[in-house]
Amino acid sequence: RDLIFDLCQTALDLNYDGLMIESHNDPDNAWSDAKQQITPEKLKELTKNLTIRRVTNDDEAYLDNLDNLRAQINVHDNQLINILGNRMKVAEKIGLLKKKNNVAVLQSKRWNEILGKMILEGDEKNLSEEFILKVFKAIHQESINHQEKILKN
Fold it and tell me: Which residues are within 8 A (CB) of 96 and not within 5 positions of it... i.e. 6 or more apart?
């Protein structure tokens, strides 16, 4: 029950189409899903405290500013793709070197060192450890895939 308000507000912030909130006069004695039900009074209070956001804003200054910021995001997204593409080319060169020298693709010690370093650097940039782990695990797996393809050919 403690999470209902935050969950509802998040749904509204993400522009979901609606909410489904279970209400019961005596939630503790409800026959089903008692822990997720609230009283009608609590429901009224909850809905009164929710903030409903607009889908957009027609203000010209807002729209110009938003377009400018989105253009900056697009530039960074393109840079990310280019950097990742270049990184994979280096991973392929490493794969060729490992194949030539009969070395295994996965180097666990190096991987753990990189991951630890990236978590620390991410923290300095206000990026959560969870985010860094997801991103670098995906990048690492793609690098492994590129290197394995080279070893198999």
Answer: 150
Name the residue with tokens 């110009």: 64
Q: Is the pTM of this model over 0.90?
A: no
Beta bridge partners of 38: 23
Domains recognised in the chain with CATH numbers: 4-49 (no CATH), 60-152 (1.20.59.10)
Cβ distance 38 to 3 under 8 Å?
no
> Nearest-CA neighbor of 92 among 105, 107, 109, 79?
105
Rounded CA Rg of the chain: 25
CA–CA gap between residue 87 and residue 60 (Å, rounded): 40
Q: Which residues, in sequence order, are CB contacts of 28 under 8 Å at separation 6+?
A: 34
Convert the pLDDT of each residue in 11-46 to its tens digit: 999 999 999 999 998 888 888 887 888 999 999 999
Report how far residue 39's alpha carbon sits from residue 47's, in angstroms, rounded to the nearest whole number: 12
Contact in structure between 15 and 55 (CB atoms under 8 Å) = yes
Contact of 8 with 45, CB cutoff 8 Å? no
